[in-house]
Task: inverse folding
């Protein structure tokens, strides 16, 4: 079965589960009418199905290659990217002042989900450009905005983010890249960056790098870092390309997955750059890009999960093996209880993770248009959950997809394993899921748990209006989650950190139950049946997860180093 973008699923979620109505009711997004929303979803879906999905397998089998300093992308990627750019998808949420559509992030989130289900490797290119566009809109000078944003939004140029160095991974403050002010107001940037997604390629004429580096008077640590825009080709004032800048891709990483996405090691040798934002404030500027990128990574997981699910479902419907214990079945392995269990888990998990991601995007849109502190707090609180649960779901669903294929899932010709290989990076980059969990129980609870409890209040209020066993189960889960949150707030940070991942998963489980309950309340038989499976079979995991979250750190640090020895 070829990939089919989940357009109908998004139409249902935006209408019934996480309504887009309050977002478009604001004047800022007033042009995002129902007709326009449907048109965006349908047109994006068509492009995913017909243009991007056929590139999924070639991108895996024929990775990007570095030849004589030039990266040649996978077959069809140049044409595929051109189709994305020509249709305006790079600038879907960018400001209209520089050529963007100015549409809600929620629609952009749906677009990335569908594109990742079709071909995550290609989608990473416009995704990075969108992040750079957002950073420049917020922090760059008017001169830089006028020169770079129209080209980035049109897709003529692409963008990257350069944070990581060989000795500075999650600890960005340990970076050693240097910046030196020149008499003309530009800067000379020197240093090496690793893991640069789409850092070099042949799909666009110019590549614009956002680079973190330290000025000579920059303090040690993250507070002494500045952000610079360093283009591959230095543009002239009219936007035409000028001299080649002194930067280069010195190698491409040989990776487990996303082979079609060139992951570059970049070398800057006194390359010319321009300051973005204020000196020594680079981390704050970059976080503008990174926060929404974390949501996007969660949706990458959801998108790949959708592709893996569709792939596994087609196989399960076709594969004849054994005799099931039901009468009048299909004769294929979908009749077997365990295969059906796995497919139900895949489908219900995808819905939960997708809904959480959309809820996060809607909160970001509402915060942007209203400035309401409650929406800002909700967006911040949901971001690590959306990133971690979406990416964890991608890995779990892709793994089940391999399992459903049985031995053939371990054989590359079925392409089932590609989904697992491609999605495995998502719990790692843009801040590992462990770091997301630590952020959730620390920084995101600096308000005393206000944002967390308000979210739980919404769940309680909704579940209390439905007199059903499903609602009772959701109410019980949120009661336990509330008690666990109170326990965390009354313990020190290391006790919180010890149970942070479990707490993050528990919160996602409860949110999943909440969104499935809303879905079931629509009365659609299909939705009711899927909600029944999730709430009865998967939601109960919250009990064990909450228990784990409350164990504390004592047992961990009672272990001596010799106890870890082989």
Result:
């Amino acid at each position: 079965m070829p990939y089919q973008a989940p357009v109908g699923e998004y139409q249902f979620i935006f209408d019934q589960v996480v309504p887009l109505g309050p977002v478009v009711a604001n004047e800022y997004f007033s042009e995002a009418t129902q007709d326009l929303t449907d048109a965006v979803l349908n047109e994006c879906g068509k492009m995913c199905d017909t243009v991007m999905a056929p590139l999924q397998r070639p991108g895996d089998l024929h990775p990007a290659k570095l030849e004589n300093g030039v990266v040649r992308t996978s077959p069809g990627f140049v044409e595929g990217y051109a189709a994305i750019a020509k249709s305006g998808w790079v600038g879907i949420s960018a400001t209209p002042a520089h050529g963007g559509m100015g549409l809600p992030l929620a629609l952009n989130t749906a677009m990335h989900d569908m594109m990742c289900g079709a071909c995550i490797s290609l989608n990473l290119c416009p995704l990075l450009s969108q992040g750079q566009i957002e950073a420049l809109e917020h922090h760059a000078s008017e001169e830089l905005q006028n020169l770079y944003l129209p080209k980035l939004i049109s897709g003529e140029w692409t963008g990257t983010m350069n944070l990581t160095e060989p000795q500075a991974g999650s600890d960005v403050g340990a970076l050693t890249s240097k910046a030196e002010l020149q008499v003309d107001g530009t800067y000379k940037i020197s240093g090496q960056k690793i893991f640069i997604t789409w850092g070099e390629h042949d799909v666009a004429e110019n590549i614009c790098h956002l680079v973190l580096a330290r000025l000579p008077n920059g303090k040690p640590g993250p507070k002494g870092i500045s952000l610079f825009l360093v283009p591959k080709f230095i543009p002239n004032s009219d936007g035409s390309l000028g001299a080649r800048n002194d930067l280069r891709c010195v190698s491409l990483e040989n990776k487990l997955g996303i082979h079609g996405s060139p992951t570059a090691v970049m070398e800057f040798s006194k390359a010319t750059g321009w300051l973005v934002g204020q000196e020594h404030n680079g981390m704050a500027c970059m976080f503008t890009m990174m926060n929404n990128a974390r949501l996007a990574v969660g949706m990458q997981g959801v998108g790949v999960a959708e592709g893996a699910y569709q792939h596994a479902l087609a196989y399960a419907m076709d594969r004849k093996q054994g005799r099931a214990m039901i009468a009048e079945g299909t004769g294929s392995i979908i009749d077997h209880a365990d295969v059906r269990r796995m497919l139900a888990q895949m489908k219900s998990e995808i819905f939960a993770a997708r809904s959480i991601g959309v809820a996060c995007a809607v909160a970001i849109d509402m915060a942007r248009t209203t400035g309401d502190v409650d929406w800002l707090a909700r967006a911040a609180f949901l971001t690590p959950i959306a990133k971690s649960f979406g990416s964890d779901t991608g890995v779990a669903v892709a793994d089940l997809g391999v399992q459903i294929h049985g031995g053939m899932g371990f054989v590359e010709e079925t392409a089932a394993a590609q989904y697992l290989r491609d999605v495995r990076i998502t719990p790692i980059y843009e801040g590992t899921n462990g770091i997301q969990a630590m952020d959730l129980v620390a920084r995101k609870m600096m308000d005393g748990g206000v944002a967390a409890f308000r979210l739980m209040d919404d769940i309680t209020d909704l579940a209390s209006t439905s007199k059903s066993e499903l609602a009772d189960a959701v109410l019980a889960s949120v009661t336990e989650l509330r008690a666990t949150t109170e326990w965390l707030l009354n313990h020190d940070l290391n006790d919180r950190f010890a149970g942070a991942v479990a707490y993050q998963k528990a919160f996602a489980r409860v949110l999943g139950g909440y969104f499935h309950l809303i879905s079931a309340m629509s009365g659609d038989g299909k939705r009711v049946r899927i909600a029944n499976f999730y709430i009865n079979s998967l939601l109960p995991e919250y009990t064990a997860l909450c228990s784990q979250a409350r164990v504390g750190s004592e047992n961990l640090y009672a272990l001596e180093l010799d106890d870890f020895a082989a």
